[in-house]
Amino acid sequence: MGNKHEIAIKIGGEAGFGIKTAGLSLARTLFNKGFGVFGYSEYPSLIRGGHNTYQINVANRKIMSATVNIDILVALNQETIELHAAELGKNSVIIHDGLKIKRDVKNIDIPLMELASKTGNELARNTVSLGAVAYLIGFEESAMNEELTEKFGTKGKKVLNMNKEAVRLGYNFIKNNYSSLISHYSLLSGKTKISGDKKVEEYKEASANTHLMTANEAVADGMIQAGCKLYSAYPMTPATSIMHILAAKQREYNLVVHQAEDEISAIGVALGAATTGVRSATGTSGGGFALMTENLGLAAMTETPVVIINSQRPAPATGLPTWTEQGDLQFMIRAAHGEFPRIVIAPGDAQEAYYMVQDGFNLAEKFQVPVIFLMDKIISESDFSLYDIETNKIQIKRKGFIDDNELERIENYKRYELTSTGISRRAVPCQVNGTHIINSDEHDEYGFSTERSEMRTKMVDKRFKKVKLMETEIPEPIMYGDVNADLTIVGWGSVKGAVIDAIEEYKNIKIREYKKKSVNFLHIVYLWPFQSKRVKAVLSGARNILLVENNKTGQLGELIRQETGIEIKNKFLKYDGRPFFREEIINKIEAFK
Amino acid sequence: MDTPNQKFNTAVSPTWCPGCGNYGIWQALKTALFELRLETHQVFISYDIGCFGNGCNFTKTYAFHSLHGRALPPAAGAKLGNKNLTVLALSGDGGAYGEGIQHLIHSARYNIDVAYLVANNQRFSLTAGQASPTTRANAKTPTTPFGEIKQPINSLLLSLMSGTTFLARGFAGDQKHLAEIIKQAIEHKGFAHIDILQPCVTFNKENSYEWYKNVIYKLEEHKYNPSDRKKAIEKTQEFELENKMPIGVIYKEDRKTYEEQIPQLEEESLCYQKLDKINSLQK
What we know:
The complex is a heterodimer.
Chain A: E1 6-14, H1 19-32, E2 36-42, E3 51-59, E4 70-75, H2 78-84, E5 88-96, E6 106-109, H3 112-118, H4 125-136, H5 145-152, H6 157-177, H7 182-185, E7 211-213, H8 215-225, E8 230-233, H9 240-253, E9 256-259, H10 263-275, E10 280-284, H11 286-302, E11 306-312, H12 329-334, E12 343-345, H13 350-367, E13 370-376, H14 377-381, E14 384-386, H15 404-409, E15 437-439, H16 453-473, E16 478-480, E17 487-492, H17 495-507, E18 519-524, E19 526-528, H18 532-540, E20 545-549, H19 555-564, E21 571-573, H20 582-591
Parallel strand pairs in A: 1-4, 4-5, 5-6, 8-9, 8-10, 10-11, 11-13, 12-13, 17-18, 17-20, 20-21
Antiparallel strand pairs in A: 1-3, 2-3, 7-14, 12-19, 16-18
Chain B: H1 4-8, H2 21-35, E1 43-47, E2 62-65, H3 72-81, E3 86-92, H4 93-99, H5 101-110, E4 115-120, E5 123-124, E6 130-131, H6 155-162, E7 166-171, H7 175-187, E8 192-197, H8 209-215, E9 216-218, H9 229-236, H10 238-242, E10 245-252
Parallel strand pairs in B: 1-2, 1-3, 3-4, 4-8, 7-8, 9-10
Antiparallel strand pairs in B: 5-6, 7-10
């Protein structure tokens, strides 16, 4: 068989077995060796007990999605075998420690517990299993050393050596007993690190600008890069790790992370800080966002820039806290009472999250509107391979402030001055001659409350005037693939990874040429204000359209119909809490007539 | 700018009912700011929605007219954003002790350096006189036509138990005394909460200026020591137990403020920090 272009490894067991820890160590090792990696975890809303998995798709090209099929299943308990048997193919192998294997499937019975005990730590069986996997995929025994040093180096030599020993024992056990299997799973061919793929040049050795990171990690770093100085939030899965990361980095980067008493206060604090000129943000999931909505309207009415992150999970109510869904799109576009402009951005992966959140801060400040940054669990918590990341790609553009000298010359400063663009300049507290009311009530140009009919109309129009300029500044949807295609897939946010990987893989499927369809993908990232013209132009020229969304009602489809009049009849919708897996999209493309 | 009114009045005249307790509180507030020699641009006031909150239009400072019950979070945010600001939050009893009571409890716990002035007239007055969390039992209002059956909240005791480091009660009918308390509250480093007794001449005929004058007395006339926490607890319960309402500073302690304990704020306020040369994504 030789080397494969891609393999999928899943580690499964009970929460508390160190599933994520082991999986991430392996993912990092693979990534640092120059492979494209996608790491996907599934876990219940529990701390102890319950079934956890971490799946690594690794390839000699960039990949951004998980597959249904698993090549190597590391089962740390019986449940893992029961739950994931259907994901195994005829060449798949299970690595386990004396478990019952019902099917006629290749398996490696390795005494993980016994070997772990030899290191003096029974809990290290997850690490022993990593040694076994390292051998199977054709790595040298020392392959994991760098990662182990990174992870355990600070915990003392004893701990580090114990973990290295655990890897060695697992590695040698396979080497001595199952060496014939290596040819099936090796990612390597001879001494060549990466081979057989035209996109190899994109993949480099680990360097300063490549990263394996989740979109939550990327968005946290993007916020730092954007000059966000205040993040005020309340914990809610799957947005919480953004707060963890920023809290850990706050002293290094001189920003303040405030854990508020609830989401209402979280956004209120962000708005208060924003009025002093500080770039401020808050983050939550749908339920917390629901609590923030009155303040979302306050941000709009007072024209206070703020970035609000919503990482979606299956809803309504508590829903499925640790799973994924794209159910909040229409809510984001309409949330809060009344009518006002806002910007909604939904990145499709960690790289987009890093750049676009920076753009989000610039847009919020320029237009003095709330910017909603819409993610979901699958991108918030999956590990993406990022290449060629430039920290200075998106420049901080400070806009919309009035300087001290000018303010002192002005007779009567108008915070809400009626201008041709709808944008008026902000004076911030402590600026002499700039006092005004940042007013929740409808107000006049100075900020004083007013109920006069003509001023009310003027102020609503003022706020909406900004939309015209927004539409010209907001990037257009991205088209992946040839413009002329038999099938155009349309989607937003996190479906990007599975769709792009599926299209790529479909191209390589061996079927008769005349049966082969060309497929492209329209990914709408800046969802509001809606890019009606561009979307209409693309879709009205499309031969066949397939809408792919991780929700029940096809919310982007509704939006497209509302904004362009185009109704997409073919919909591939999924709302079981799971993301789209690559094969599901491929099957859909194949079946499409 | 020789008087509090010249310095802190805007061009808009108050819209409160004649005889409203808000006039006294407003005057005391302006006097306090004036006597502390604060400039209009150095002061940030976050306002509740309600009769008292409408004062944002009449008072010349940087103002944030927020949402009902939500005056405290933006006040905290402004202080975190610019620590040089003198930050106050103004609320009515409905917003402070009903809708947004969690913000009182937690701001006290954080000990953020904000002075919280609560105008307490025992009614939701801007919505025309409904019972509020401080309405006395049996009071008849549009929402309690047969008499209020709930117990009123003891906001002072709650505040004290939550960690407020400066706790006081004032009376809208004694501007001079109230101005002194407001001054102390502003000067206090940490969370300062003043519950201000305030008649609503339109919707609360029972708790009039006369009614209050019969139950209140000034703590400082009784050699009271506000650093004694046990005594403070007693004072916050005096009305329930003895039908007396002490006014003045009930409790005061020195505790590090929230923002003082954040090293990122030591040198420069967030709003003045330079945004160039940021290098994220460091491994």
